[in-house]
Design goal:
By secondary structure, this protein is α/β, with parallel strands linked by helices. The chain has a single domain, classed as Rossmann fold, CATH 3.40.50. The protein contains seven helices and ten strands. It has a seven-stranded parallel β-sheet, with helices on one face. The protein has a three-stranded antiparallel β-sheet with strand order 4-8-7, with helices on one face. Helix 1 packs across helix 2. The longest helix is centred in the first third of the chain and has 18 residues. The protein is globular and about 45 Å long. It starts with a strand and ends in an 8-residue tail after the last strand. The site of fructose -6-phosphate (F6R) has 14 residues, from loops. It is an enzyme of class 3 (hydrolase). Belongs to the glucosamine/galactosamine-6-phosphate isomerase family. NagB subfamily. InterPro entries: Glc/Gal-6P_isomerase, Glucosamine6P_isomerase, Glucosamine6P_isomerase_CS, NagB/RpiA_transferase-like. Its EC number is 3.5.99.6. One of its GO terms (molecular function) is glucosamine-6-phosphate deaminase activity.
């Protein structure tokens, strides 16, 4: 695991963006695993700029997002499909049909999960999986529990997660209670993982995830078992690491 801590936001962003850009330069047909949340936004902005300047192309790439809320109406501004279109896909040359986000409105959510896994199996493995880190140690929406699930599944969101995400909704009651998420097994199949964490409030969970025991009570700790993880932290998030 290679861990880098950055004083400057600009360096955090350019390091993350360069990893993705050099992958696309060497493998234009890359399969990208993407995340929503605040941590990758600066990197997505930089990728848009570089794409528009002709420095990188996504025309042959495909993408699979980690997760999606259950039950938000299509086009809802807080749905993860909306987020990805708005923050990245609408502004780069990726083919929309090559972008995949689980459908949280599928009539049969179980069938949707199996379909998502089958697509990942057929088109994967993911070359580079971007992850953020939840305050409770979640990756995707794999919440701490006595056991974890390998494949894509429907998950009940913990109060800590709903409360953290309530800032994006009119009230806590409006935050969905369920999501569809890729499982930890699918995440760990990626060839390379890029974990992005920003903010002082994540310092303790960063330490637990990267240096603490590997346990289902901190799903991100499983990343310690992966052979190719790059972690980018801002100073706040990295402050408890020696
Ligand atoms: C997003 C996701 C979540 C976030 C995590 C961190 O698709 O799966 O696990 O990555 O909650 O969110 P931020 O980046 O807002 O700190």
């Amino acid at each position: 695991m290679n861990i880098y801590t950055f004083k400057q936001e600009a360096d955090f962003v350019s390091t993350g963006a360069s990893l993705i850009v050099s992958l696309l330069h060497t493998k234009p047909r890359s399969v990208l695993g993407l995340a929503t949340g605040s941590s990758p936004i600066g990197i997505y902005k930089r990728l848009i700029e570089m794409n528009q300047q002709g420095l990188v192309s996504f025309a042959k790439a495909s993408s699979y997002n980690l997760d999606e809320y259950v039950g938000l109406p299509e086009g809802h501004p807080e749905s993860y499909r909306y987020f990805m279109n708005d923050k990245l896909f609408n502004h780069i040359d990726i083919k929309m049909e090559n972008t995949h986000v689980p459908n949280g409105n599928a009539a049969d959510l179980e069938a949707e999960c199996r379909k998502y896994d089958a697509m990942l199996e057929a088109n994967g493995p993911v070359d580079l999986q971007i992850l953020g880190l939840g305050h409770n140690g979640h990756i995707g929406f794999n919440e701490p529990d006595e056991s974890l699930v390998g494949g894509t599944h429907v998950v009940g969101l913990q109060e800590k997660t709903r409360t953290a995400n309530a800032r994006f909704f009119p009230s806590l009651d409006d935050v969905p209670t369920q999501a569809v998420t890729m499982g930890v097994g699918s995440i760990l199949k990626a060839r390379q993982i890029l974990l992005l964490v920003r903010g002082e409030d994540k310092a303790e969970i960063v330490k637990r995830a990267l240096k603490g025991p590997i346990t289902s009570q901190c799903p991100a700790s499983l990343l310690q078992c992966h052979p190719n993880v790059v972690v980018l932290l801002d100073q706040g998030a990295g402050r408890l690491l020696s």
